[in-house]
Amino acid sequence: MGNRVYLQVRRVQFNGSRIRLYLQEVPLMRAAKIAGMLMSLTLSGAALAETSGYGQQLEGFTYPHALHKFSFQSQGQTLEMGYMDVAPSGKANGRTAVLMHGKNFCAATWEDTIKGLSAAGYRVVAADQIGFCTSTKPEHYQYSFQQLSMNTHALLEKLGLDKVSVVGHSTGGMLATRYALLYPKQTEKLVMVNPIGLEDWKALGVPYRSVDQWYERELKTTAEGIRAYEQKTYYDGRWKPEYDKWVDMLAGLNKGPGHKVVAWNSALIYDMIFTQPVFYEFPRLQVPTVLMIGDADTTAIGSDIAPPEVKAKIGNYKVLGKQVAQMIPGARLVEFKGKGHAPQMEDPQGFNKALVSELQ
């Protein structure tokens, strides 16, 4: 019968650019054909990993709801904010929730939260802030949380919204805090979801990184780096396949034709986050406030360059949530045990149930 080579191949399964093989025994000639097929599939997977990316305003990436654009003047230039305005899918309660995304997130990443709030009767507005995602990336802009708050307030005025509940995640939590401080009469309730800025990193000894240094760092952004950072810091070592599209979103934006201006705006925004703490003003909040904290979160800006003794004491959300809840008059603390930086993405059902309850 001669020598035979056996190769086990039952099926091929794709997960992003990774390929899983299920094999069975086959004769030599057929094995050679299959080897050629697998080589072709491997090259296709590599090609998928090297896509040209998305446009400067995330053109090519699909949002879960209709995307609108708000055009306005700011700092001597015309800018656009992309936003979703989603009507209630359940019985309307006449209330509106405004969702503010984080630094490594977009309005689209609120997808599950929008679904839950809409079903509970809320109108939901989720905007991309200037410098992010589907919004303008100016070549020159003086970033501040006050400016971003004013931009958002202008959008809400255009939509005819006077009273809203503001929900901010991560960097959006810092922005939501500033918004509530600037517009307390317009803020029915403030909800911060794993906000960064629950501590002042620079005061705790984290070294300063210049805008130019941030820019050089951002130019090196890759899908692999994004995934590794998020898995370690955001999800406490866990990963779900549904997170992959958000990695693709960020990586595509950072390797598209506008990647340099994207990186520059990202650097300016990091400088804003690091140098403009809201921490010292938490006691001044005059609106009903809820902290929703995944207590396994370890996010801290600059932790990658912090001395070991500094790194060891920052980003401890088990402690930070409780400390800040004591600083804010009348604040409530809702903890998600064992969850990381994005409980709304790790446990959408549990998060939505808690959020709707707290907003009532």
Automatic annotation (TrEMBL):
<feature type="domain" description="AB hydrolase-1">
    <location>
        <begin position="99"/>
        <end position="348"/>
    </location>
</feature>
<dbReference type="GO" id="GO:0046464">
    <property type="term" value="P:acylglycerol catabolic process"/>
</dbReference>
<dbReference type="GO" id="GO:0047372">
    <property type="term" value="F:monoacylglycerol lipase activity"/>
</dbReference>
<dbReference type="InterPro" id="IPR029058">
    <property type="entry name" value="AB_hydrolase_fold"/>
</dbReference>
<dbReference type="Pfam" id="PF00561">
    <property type="entry name" value="Abhydrolase_1"/>
</dbReference>
<keyword id="KW-0378">Hydrolase</keyword>
<protein>
    <submittedName>
        <fullName>Alpha/beta hydrolase fold protein</fullName>
    </submittedName>
</protein>
<dbReference type="GO" id="GO:0016020">
    <property type="term" value="C:membrane"/>
</dbReference>
<dbReference type="InterPro" id="IPR000073">
    <property type="entry name" value="AB_hydrolase_1"/>
</dbReference>
<dbReference type="InterPro" id="IPR050266">
    <property type="entry name" value="AB_hydrolase_sf"/>
</dbReference>
